[in-house]
Design brief:
By secondary structure, the protein is an alpha+beta fold. The chain has two domains: 108 residues, Winged helix-like DNA-binding domain superfamily/Winged helix DNA-binding domain (Arc Repressor Mutant, subunit A, Orthogonal Bundle); 79 residues, no CATH class. 50% of the residues lie in helices and 14% in strands. A two-stranded parallel ribbon has the order 1-4. Strands 2-3 form a two-stranded antiparallel sheet. A hairpin with a 5-residue loop joins strand 2 and strand 3.
Length: 214
């Protein structure tokens, strides 16, 4: 058993496209704003967004005491900002909780609580639209471009051969390289994503403006 300690966690934060929207006049706002009012709490939350961690690991990460870390983690957990996703054991066999951010994006809405449901639904549709746009952009790049790798600057490169005199001769024609580079300067998948993102952003702005004026 001693050889198995300390144990490690491979837990990840739960993923969900469903946002959590809190109106500033709601009952949950007091706990949330109180928990995030401390700089230490915000540093802890930022660290957990990088990787789930135990209180002791978080204390080392942000350079504070374990007692202070546990205090702020408790407040964040009470406000449903973070949650326990796993349990590990220290070298001495002591049980330790592994924390991660809650499973939904968090939006604080400065408006009437009655409008929270509509905003939550709109944000859900917005996130879903961007997800679908990303998939379609990959498909467009695959169909009309040089593959997904070109979106990240990955290319096969040019090959070269060496002559007997020690000089190298490029295997592709320089003029053809220039023409290909100009044609592929902007990947079609990226153009499609940028245009789609603009349309989605304008649509959301129109929705926000019309609902704000009601």
């Amino acid at each position: 058993m001693a050889d198995l300690l300390p144990s490690t966690s491979d837990a990840t934060a739960p993923q969900s496209a469903e946002p959590r929207v809190i109106g500033v006049d709601s009952d949950d706002a007091d706990d949330l704003l109180g928990a995030l009012s401390s700089e230490t709490a915000r540093e802890l939350l930022a660290a957990l967004h990088d990787d789930p961690a135990t209180p002791s690991a978080l204390a080392d990460t942000i350079d504070t005491s374990l007692q202070n870390t546990q205090y702020h983690l408790g407040k964040l957990e009470d406000a449903d900002v973070i949650q326990v996703v796993d349990t590990v054991y220290s070298e001495k066999g002591r049980e330790m909780k592994v924390y991660a951010p809650a499973d939904q994006p968090l939006v604080v809405f400065a408006g009437n609580e009655e409008k929270t449901t509509g905003l939550k639904a709109a944000l859900s549709r917005l996130l879903g639209a961007f997800g679908a746009l990303g998939l379609l952009s990959v498909a467009v790049q695959q169909a009309f471009g040089d593959g997904v790798g070109t979106l990240f600057g990955v290319s096969g490169g040019d090959t070269a051969t060496e002559t007997g005199g020690g000089m190298t001769v490029q295997s592709t024609d320089a003029a053809q390289q220039t023409a290909d580079a100009a044609a592929n300067a902007v990947p079609p998948g990226l153009v499609f994503f940028a245009g789609g993102a603009l349309v989605i952003a304008l649509g959301f702005a129109w929705w926000y403006y019309t609902n704000r004026s009601e």
